[in-house]
Every structure is written in C-alpha cells, then in structure tokens.
Amino acid sequence: xxxxxxxxxxxxxxxxxxxxxxxxxxxxxxxxxxxxxxxxxxxxxxxxxxxxxxxxxxxxxxxxxxxxxxxxxxxxxxxxxxxxxxxxxxxxxxxxxxxxxxxxxxxxxxxxxxxxxxxxxxxxxxxxxxxxxxxxxxxxxxxxxxxxxxxxxxxxxxxxxxxxxxxxxxxxxxxxxxxxxxxxxxxxxxxxxxxxxxx
Length: 199
Ligand code: MN3
Hints:
Helices cover about 50% and strands about 10% of the residues. The protein is built from 8 helices and 3 strands; from the N terminus they run αααααβββααα. A 3-stranded antiparallel β-sheet has the order 2-1-3. By secondary structure, the protein is mostly helical. The chain has helices at about 20-45, 55-60, 65-85, 95-105, 105-120, 170-175, 175-185, 190-199, and strands at about 125-130, 135-140, 155-165. A hairpin with a 2-residue loop joins β1 and β2 (about 135-140).
C-alpha cells in the first residue's frame, strides 16, 4: 500500500470538550481510514503509485474523481490532525504573525475572515489559510478539494485548514457549525502552522 493512515500523536480525548473523543475516533478510524484505503485502490497499478500526495494533487485535473476525492481526503485530514495537535503556541508569532498582519491588518481580522469562510462554505468542504505568492489568503473548497489542486479557485500551499463536513462536528454540535468553528479556533497549534508557513 502506497499511503498509510498515520497514527495521531495524541489521544482521542485530548481535545475535549472542544472536539469529543467519539467524533475524533470515528473521524480518524473510519473516515480518514476510508479515504486512505480508497486512494490506494484508485492508484493501484498506475504511475501515481510512485508519486507524492502533493504531486498527485497538483495534477489532479488529469486524474479520476476517485483520486481527487480520496487523495484530497487523505491529505486534508493529515493536515487537520496536525494543526489541532495539543501543545503548540496558542497565538501566531514571529514571521507568521508579521505575514498575517501584512495580509489581513490584524489577527482578529484574519480570524473573522477564516470563521466566515468556514461558516459560509455551503454543504461539505474545508476553509483554509493559504500561502500564495508570499502572501496569505483565506479560501474555502467543496468536498475534499484543497488549494494544492489545479482545479481550486484559490491555489497555493495550505498552512491551516478546518474540516466543515458534518462528520467533523455533528455528534457534539449538531447544526451549530459556528460553535464548532469557534472551538476549533482555540485549538489551533500555531507552531505547526508556522512550520508549514516556513515550508
Ligand atoms: Mn473529515
């Protein structure tokens, strides 16, 4: 198998009460596991088996819907688990803070734009903080698309992402997506976002 479901380096209970353990467990062992298995099935026997996930996504317009949906799902959830891992800085700092201030005027204005993108994404999808030509922008994508994909409206390197599929929050928040988004904001591991920002 080309791609492996990564273990979380923290317990399913670690993000309670913001994200409950049952949601974390189902999200990781069922949803993320299924994207991983289905991606491997979709690329089996093809040249994509020898490519990185980033390379696959950058040329996704040339691949099947199964590669687009499951490759996105595989990549997006790896990023998601990392940017909410407990223990990092609780606010943006250093060069990342400077870049946020330059692009959005303030962290608060960035937060408003990010929350707005997450809350208003219709149906299932993701909201992102994207590094694009040395500038930071907020975007959102449908389904399991992401800014690495050549089909995305806003293309660049995603450095922060929130899953707004109902499976990410419904057990605890039901229809209250804004409550989940605001809880997610408080979980962000800014050291991990800074690591991705620096590339
Ligand atoms: Mn998900």
